[in-house]
Amino acid sequence: MSGHTDMVLVNDEGLRIDGRTAEEKRPIKIEAGVLSNADGSAYLEIGKNKVLAAVYGPRECHPRHLQDPTKAIIQCKYNMEAFSVSDRKRPGPDRRSIEISKIIAEALEKVVLTELFPRASIDVYIEILQANAGTRCAGLTAASVALADAGIPMRDIIPAIAAGKADDHVLLDLNKEEDNFGQADVPLAIVPSTDEIVLLQMDGNMTREEFDHAIDLAYKACHEVYDVQKEALKKRYTSMKEEVDSDE
Amino acid sequence: MSDFIISEIKRDHILKLLCEGKREDGRGTADIRKIETIVGCIESADGSARVKLGKTEIIAGVKIVPGTPFGDSPDVGVLTTGAELIPMAHASFESGPPSETAIELARVVDRGIRESGMIDVSQLCIESGKEVWMCFIDMYALDYDGNLFDAANLAAVCALKNAIIPAEQYGKGKNRPLPVTCTPISITSVKIGNDLILDPNFDEEMISSARMTVTTDDNGNFRAMQKGGKGSITRDDLSLCLDRAVEKGKEIRKIIG
Question: ipTM strictly over 0.90?
Answer without folding.
Answer: no
